[in-house]
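During the second year of the project, the team shifted from modelling isolated chains to modelling whole assemblies. The rationale, set out in the original proposal, was that interfaces cannot be judged from single-chain predictions alone. As a representative example for this report, we include one of the complexes processed in the last quarter. Its constituent sequences, exactly as entered into the pipeline, are reproduced here:
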Amino acid sequence: MYKHANEALAKAKSLKELLRAKDELTQKTGYYFGIEVLGLKEEDPIKFERFYSEIHNLALRARESARFVAASPGGREMGESLWSICTPEGDTLANSLGFSTHMVAYDTCIRFMIDNDYEENPGINDGDIFSTDDGKTGGAPHPGDTYSYMPVFAEGEIVGWAVAVNHIMEAGAPIAGSWPGFSVDTSMDGLVFPPMKVGENRTPARWWEQLWKSRTRAGVFNVLDDKMRLAGNVIIADGIKEIVREYGLDYYKRAIREVIEDSRRAIKENIRTSCVPGKFDGATFRVVKYKGLSKLWPHADKDFMLHTKMTLNVNSDATILGDMTGTSKWDYCAFNGYPGGADIAFYLPITGNFVHNTKMTSGLFYDVKSYYPKGSTYNPDTDYAAFSNIWAQSMAMGALHWNAITRSMFAKGYLEECLSVEGDWAGIQGGGTLANDQNYGFTNFEQVGGVAQGAYPYRDGSPVTWAMWTQLTNIGNVEEWEYLIPPFFYLGRRLVKDFCGHGKYRGGIGLSSIHWVVQPGKDLYVSRGGAGTSQTTHVALGQAGGYPAPNSWYLAVRNSNLNDKIKGGMPYPRSADEILDYLAEEKITAQDVQIFKYDPPQLKMKDGDVFSDASGAGGGWGDPLERNAQSVIKDLNEGWVSEKIALTCYGVVARKETSDNEVRYLLDEPATQKAREDKRNARLRCQSVKDWWENERKKVAKKELIEPVKYMYNSSFSTQDGDSFKQNFIDFWQLENNYDLN
Amino acid sequence: MAAKTQNSYIIAIDAGGTMTDAVIISDDGSFQIGKYRTYRADESESYMGALKAVADQMSLTTQEVHENCEVAIYAGTAMTNTLITLDGNKVGLIITRGMEHMPIIENGLTYIGQSQKEILHQQLRRHTAPLVEKKNIFGVSERVTGGSYFGDAHLPEATVLIPLNEKEVEAAAEKLVKNDVEVIGVMFLNSHVFPDHENRAAEIANKVIEKHGKNIKVVASNKIAPVGKDAFRLKSLLVQCFAAEKARKQLEYVELAARKDGYQKELLTLLSFGGAVSIKYPRLYESIISGPIGGLIAGKEIAKLLNIDRLAVGDIGGTSYDVGVILNKRIELRTDSDFAKHRLAMPMVELDSMAHGMGTEVKVNDFGNVEVGPESAGYRVGVCLDYDKLTITDLQVALGYIAEDSFLGGKIILDRDKACRELEKAAKKIGINNLYDGGEGFLNIFFTNLRQFTRTSIESKGYSLKDFVLIACGGGGLVNMHGLASGNVFKDVITTPFGSTFSAFGVGCADLVHRYNKGVVSFIRPGMDEHDKADLLDQLTREWKALEDTAVEEFKLEGVNKEDIKFARGVFMRYVGQLESFETKLNFEVSNTEDLDKVTAAFEKGYEQKYPAAAKFTQAGYAITQVFIEATGPKLMPKIKEYAMSSAKPSDSSYAGSRRVYHRGKWTDFNLFHLSELKAGNVIKGPAVIFDDISTLVVGEGDSINLDRYRIIHYTSGI
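Output from the structure prediction step:
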């Protein structure tokens, strides 16, 4: 069609032509938009940097100004928002602070609008506001993430898009909250809408505000968040016009594409210098417990497992392909998603490892690619699959990717960059009716805001320090969460003893909060948003011999005598583990105690009930028997590990000294040496891998697998690339070629 | 200046990390400037040293200055250093049961103070070291409500859910005394709306301390930062306990040294919101940042003098560029503030900082992209003197803007060749063969970043750049002024002959002002009835009055009488549902229920200035989250002198020869002028360099400066 970018930019008559030109030229040449020579950069590198500085500052400025309009802590100061500047065809030029990989979605959404002739109907004009939260057409990872797009015009033509996204408080599904669980198909995902024009002349339509108010349980919050996104987009749209005036339209159009090609090359070079090429395998599993919950939808009334399989190919030409062949087929559950949304998780390790010394643009999408087999969890071959909690499932996938990159970088000799990554999180959500009939819905993002680091090859991870999926770590203030979610009061927010992956260096310790229900009024229902995986081993399966982190878990204690005991002066329990201790020691009694290692269904809560979560632990690195024994003693004295774990896991024997009712631990060196020696000898007596494989093989050959596991493998065999995974399975277990699991 | 003692001097000291700047202001408004090394171990030595440097120029002894001194204000670094070197007090903490790990997890805020590049590199995150040891943290049972978004539809604020367990408090205090802590903090959830539990716990702890005959200070969070957001209130409390109480001792040494030398008044220090207070002030942690604040206060004086409603202060130091704005001759405040990787809850001037200063590193990365900062040479200068990487100063030296033999009055000789060699390497990396072209290009990126940052800072507050006068100041303010001014994007760009010690001058200009705030949970809902309005009015009036009473008490410490104090009132408010409140100053009486409409109108006016009309949400109603007052006491203020206007042509004595500078793509002869010889009314056309021992002001080709009747320098850019 066009020979080079400049010709396309001069002659293309529509966005559609421009997009085709970009795709073709990129495909044909291997350079973004066919830009083989960075003409503007070479001509005047200083001007080029100055230009980008102005673009980048504009994105930063939009956030710093607009976020204060927000209703949700997620948008305002936690990392759950983002403002960006895009090219007319949907590639990202610059981002504000925030959850930056959301920029993957822009390509999906803008491409959808162009492909579906939005230029003609409803028209794309100066001052228009478009919005979407759909996975399939808009690239949203889940319905709680809502995007606003404003086309930017200069000198009469569209020169880009101002885009904003944030995680809202409530999505309007049957299950209250912003990750509606238990959706059977997308009709239960809540208020989901494809890219739509929702306003003109920089003003949202009246029906738009009403829609949020009548179709979600947090209308006021959601309207304010919408206003926040708009405020930033207006700043960007005005700023771009000015930059075009200063640099000229022609320079602007060429430079924005060169910037992307320039950063593409930088990222490729980063991959080349920091990774050892190879194939890095990973797998993770989720238990889906829907049996008994979906009586009205018999096709969803089942317990089963989901499989996520990733083979990460780090190639010697410094390209990366994440191949998800072997991943389960989509199902009647909330954990499916669509490629745009899944990519938001897939690209996390790329921004964390390869972007920090260059410009964060769409340049990162061209040499690092994902492959989701058609029909799989991340790429359903239907329009009706639910995607309300893909975030839970895709974080596990993102963590597989990150750990693969970690292994590749560790092989090259990096230490500071390498850590055990779990991708575990939790979000409490729900809804209710107060005594005065006031309805409301809510999400508490606390344990999405920050989690523990896993261990590094040279140090322990630390608690509530980072999150793979957000750069602005922040779990929010207790006083703010209580302000927003009236019947919940915190009895504690603390780290849980032993709640980490152990190793030569241990992971950071996970967090637990207790939400105590006080005077909920007429009704209160609570569920949780999900986690990295559930009820199975975590993603970083023990780096270099360390233990993986323990999984998230939840505890509901209802119909108890807690309130009476508190009234009687008993020091109250402070975390999930402490409640279990109180119950075991009969300090409190309860008729209804439930522990969930998977998504709990909506639970009705009454005055005096408690709901407690424990999540976000980090995995270990290296053999725990190699841990400095004094570090274990220090952990004992600080209360981070128990005597039991010190002995059974680390082989450390501690002597106790008590003075003034205070216990102090000291190292018993000879006894520790002996305990560690015994443990090493015991390892020599354990089953060999060969024996284990032979025993397991017999079971596999005889199909002696439990039903959910059988279901899972059959599901993995039935996607578009299922056959190749099945062959892989047959080869590994050395089975007959006509083996089947039915 | 002739030797003569006067009736009143103002001593203003700005102690930076490496240098202590001093200004002595005489009552005719004239002033002298001096510098001395900062001695961290004993700041009284640098205080006296800097003072002597100035007194010498005035042919006075420090004793003569002290004996005739009206007020001495000292903005020190003690607290900063305590936090950085972690040698603060041994702190004990009594906290709401269940929240004992808060100081360790610090809400996960591990990115505070990082640039976007650093933030993206998230696996390198670390927590700050806790300011209290885990073994000295004790939880006690108690729980109180803070009020909710739904107002009275759910439990109102200050409802006790679990009464304070006094026995637990007593046991905790006993242990802390036994553990030999030096100060005890008390921090309970929602104490900003219900301080009783904290105050009672403090009382119990004090009894235990008294019983043991110990001298341990007990500080409650509601006395330090009575505002919502527990993590930040706790940080404020811990900084107060760990660093401020310790820093107070350093300030007392300084005061003692001054007293021994004849000073008879209270030593004052500077708060982060710009007020000067006695070093006895209870919430001393509020003085954590004071250097750049001095610049803003000085800016305010210039705004008053020249009647400027929109002034931005751009302070270019060694490692950072700080931008603050003065609107309608007032310094703007923000409610939470970041310092040394901690996020605090205190009123602090709106000040944005970027890692761009004279010592900022300039490099070309492996991808051929030019990077300016964020790394810097710290207190060092550059390859031209004592550092191994190219800095902004190196560029200025290589291009000839800064003379190699006039740095700090020629006391230090710089190695220009070395700077050129390093610059050449960097330029070649991006294919620029002429090192001077490279240097100018790099400098242009630096200038662009400075301008863009200034712009972000101003526009994110909702204002237009073209309405603003920018004042360039700080150690790098004058030499980079031509870069800031290029493009004429500001209404005017100005500086003063003392621009490089602008902050110290500002310290001398500080008002004697205290600020008090208190968290509240109140609503102005649509259709609210008269009765509810009257209740709200009562509550607001009561809260303001209580704060004013506290102000009167605390001013007594400084010897200020009630009738000399001036009060101003205000609130922080937002639309119901929002989480961020906006400061709303009330320059009118709120005495009847109709005035509440004026309050909401004042809020919306501020909001509209910042956001598009569609971002308003009037129908949601309003929430008031804080009330505040400002109390101002009387203090002698310096005056900037007015001069008779001379001719445009500078005197012959000001001319000091010429120097070749690589400027706008070619070597150009720059005329040199002595700064001290320039007079009101003089106009200097570029290319020119104007200098004294501590400043170099560059006037580019085609640019010009003129000195107004206050000798304030106005810059006009030709490009």
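Chain A is about 35% helix and 20% strand. Residues 427 and 529 of chain A are 5 Å apart (CA to CA).
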